[in-house]
Each structure stands twice: as C-alpha cells, then as structure tokens.
Amino acid sequence: MRQGSLPLLLIAAVAAAAVSAAPASTLSGPSRPVTVPVGDRGHAVDLPDTDPRVQRRVTGWAPEQVAVALSAAPTSAWVSWITGDFQMGGAVKPLDPSAVGSVVRYGLAADSLVHEATGESLVYSQLYPFEGLQNYTSGIIHHVRLQGLEPGTRYFYRCGDPSIPDAMSDVHAFRTMPAVGPKSYPGRIAVVGDLGLTYNTTSTVEHMVRNQPDLVLLLGDVCYANLYLTNGTGTDCYSCSFANSTPIHETYQPRWDYWGRYMEPVTSSIPMMVVEGNHEIEEQIDNKTFASYSTRFAFPSEESGSFSPFYYSFDVGGIHFVMLASYADYNRSGAQYRWLEEDLVKVDRSVTPWLIAGWHAPWYTTYKAHYREAECMRVEMEELLYAYGVDVVFTGHVHAYERSNRVFNYTLDACGPVHISVGDGGNREKMATAHADDPGHCPDPASTPDPFMGGRLCAANFTTGPAAGRFCWDRQPDYSAYRESSFGHGVLEVKNDTHALWRWLRNQDLNADVAADEVYIVREPDKCLAKSSRLLAY
C-alpha cells in the first residue's frame, strides 16, 4: 500500500458513514416498514399531589399557571393565568371574576414594560348532581391578547392586577413567531400528544426543553383528570375500575391545576397550542362537556374565523397550521367542515408553502388500540385535505409512536400527507382487555355506529387496551413506515419551502440529539399542487 493511501481511505470511510447516516427522504419513495419491539415503557405513574412541582406556590391574588399561546398571526399572542385557588366540596361558590383585573404589562426589556393590554376573566365549575360526589369550581382564569407585536422578537412581560398589592407575576419572556412568508421559519417545533402528569411526563418535558423548541403542539389528552373519582381516587383504566359503581364518569379537576403548575416553566416562555382529546370530554351536569379545556386555554378561534375552541388555524412563518376536532361534528354538512373549506381556500401557498394539520385521533394507525376508531372522520375529511395538498398530519391518542409513508385512502401516494402519531408523551397505561392475547386480530372497522354520522356504521374498536405494543397484523402494512412503543416526543425543523426534517426522540435516549426515527419530508409542489388543483376543479 502506498504511503498516504490509508488517510485517504479513512476519509472515504468517514464520508461514506456520514452519507449512510443521513436521514431518509420522502423524495426517495416509501420507506421499508420498520417495527421496533416493545422496550422500556418508563414510569407511567401519576405525580402525587404532595409533589412540590404541582402544589400552589403563590398566595393571595398572585398569578399562577401562566401560559402563552399564539394568535392567528405572529403580530399577536395570548397570555393566560389563574388567580385564586380552586374549591372542592358538595356545595361550592364560584369566585367573582371581577374581583381582580386582567392586565399584562410587556416590553422589549425586563425593566421596560412600557406597553399594557387588558383582557377577560372567567371561572368554570364541574358539577355532579349525585349524592356523595364532590363538585369543583376553578380559580379565576384570565386571557389577555397582546397585539401589534413585532415578529421574531423577544418580549418580556408581567401579568396580574397592578392595582392590588402582590398581585403581579414575576417577569417572564417569550419570543413571537417569524413573520409570515415563504423564507421564514421557526427553528424547532416540538410535537407531543397524550402528555398526562406522570413520571414519564417529566422525562418527556425535560427532554423536550433540552431541544429548545420555539413552539409546542399538544395534540390532546392533557392531564387525564377523568381517570379519577371526585374524591381523588385514581386508576389506570376508569371503565375497568369504576364503570359499574358510579352514576356518571367522574373527574378530579384539581389534576388540571397540578398540570398547569408543573408546566408553567415551559408554558410561560414557549407558546403552546392545544387541541382537544377524548380525555377532555368530562361530562357533568346538564350533559355539559369540555368545560375545563375550553375555559383554561386561549385559542385563535375568533381570529381564524372558527369561533370554536375545538378547531382553528394560525400562521407561523411559512407554515399554515390547521387544528381540527376529533370530538366535534366533522360531517360534510357541519360547521367544522364548512369552516375548514373556507380556511383552506384562503391559504396562499406562495406565502405559506407548508400546510400542516393536527388533531387527536389518528386515521392511520396499525396498533390494535384505537384501530380505525377515527374512520368516519377520515371518510368525511380526507379527500378535502388531500385536494388542498396537506403536507403533514400530526395526531396522538394511541400511546405509542408511528409514522406513515405518504398515503391517501390506505394507498401509497406520493402526494399524500405523512401521518405521524405521537401519543407517547407520558400518559398512564391502560389495562389490557379485549384481544389482549390475540395481537393478530383486528376488530371490524364497520361494526360500531359513529355519533357524528347519524349512527352510520363506520368506525370501531373503542377498546381500553392494550394501549401500546400490540399490532393489527403480523405483517406491517406498506403505508406504515416506522412504529415503536416507547415514550417520547417529536421535533419538526422546517428548513425551507420544500424541505423539513422530522425527528422522533425517545425518553430512554438521554442525549437530546439522538433520534430513533428521522426523515426529511420533501414537498413537490410542481407535481402535487397541480394534481390538487385538478381535483378541486371537479
């Protein structure tokens, strides 16, 4: 061997390794299906109310549970918080929202909060008209919209009531999203579902924060308050433990406050956008539902024209996000579908090239739990989303991770969206019931009436488990690219108007930069948007 050839060989080997280690690309066509065997499921046990991270740390009217959410455009944002403590008991008297003001003072420096905005305040109650059950009424929940902000700018703020001693928060800070346009994108978007408030949750959140996201998408099932009775007794599976012994599906609403307190270091500095899941339904007196979800969070509902907390849209740089509701009417004659049509027709892909959708229940999952549970929603809405060229769909619900190849109507399609299910945020495990020892059996997807389709037979398998690690076939279908039953979260990095890097990170991988699954999602607008235009013409 000639002198000097070894270094050249080493350089060539390193280069080859670098090439082989590069993420796959959707431009190369469908990935070969990969299934990773069930591994470490972590510590899916709820944080107790004695944990200092969930206990109330303020007194009087001082704000807590501070959170930032986006408005429809980067020039506006919402700040939310709670003052006063909740009440539990047989008879509860709501606090008076007018007792304390809703004020945010903000500016470009911590010592120069020269701007002021005011907003609204409200309380909600969770009431059960049955003897022996405990009722709940919240602290005062405040929502203030900041307007006239500069995109891509760090703002400092305090919230509360400056007219009351010790009723203003500490100084927090957040960064607005990049200006709307095809050359402008946030650095990292964290995507997580079914977060809960377990020790797994703490691992996920710590891991997520180390990745320094600019925005967090939470795809439903927030704190699992409905896995508890009103006396605070919890379970992994409500229907298994309590269904035959309670007159209504109870909840323990303080879990919401615990979650808000634990998450405040994140939500007060990183905008978080939330959509509802099935664990937010929370039925109470007079068949009222979703009271906590629709009251605690701020949504760009009015700004995006939906006027609903369940579905809305917003722009982040060159991305138009559409958040949809799995648990509201999605019939083609319903309000959500009509709003979606109106929203999509207004999207200018020369301004926001990327179109990303999110909701809770996945359309494409090959796990046994929740298999084709959202089939009716898919039947109603998939064609519309495909026609407008949706690039990526994020969902949760299934307590495991799965990424699809580009797919439309269960068929590989180079112009279909990539569906990514990230319901592995940290939730409590569900108990194994039907089909527990038959992983090769899938329920009939046409055997259960769908409530939003006039009782039409369309979806199936509202089972309680096993929630992860069981699949519907011995052979993974070709539209499923990667699936693994581990806890974690995902990060989306949109690089330009055609390329985005998706990375899924498991909790057991302590290095925040190590991805178990990663792929470049590549748009082909010349081919796919032209195809979409032809579909819309019909």
Automatic annotation (TrEMBL):
One of its GO terms (molecular function) is metal ion binding. Residues 1-21 form the signal peptide. Residues 473-509 form the Purple acid phosphatase C-terminal domain. Keywords: Glycoprotein, Hydrolase, Signal. It is an enzyme of class 3 (hydrolase). Transmembrane segments: none annotated. It catalyses: a phosphate monoester + H2O = an alcohol + phosphate. The keyword Glycoprotein applies. Residues 188-401 form the Calcineurin-like phosphoesterase domain. Residues 63-176 form the Purple acid phosphatase N-terminal domain. Its EC number is 3.1.3.2. SUPFAM superfamilies: Metallo-dependent phosphatases, Purple acid phosphatase, N-terminal domain. CDD domains: MPP_PAPs (cd00839). Belongs to the metallophosphoesterase superfamily. Purple acid phosphatase family. This is Purple acid phosphatase. It comes from Miscanthus lutarioriparius.
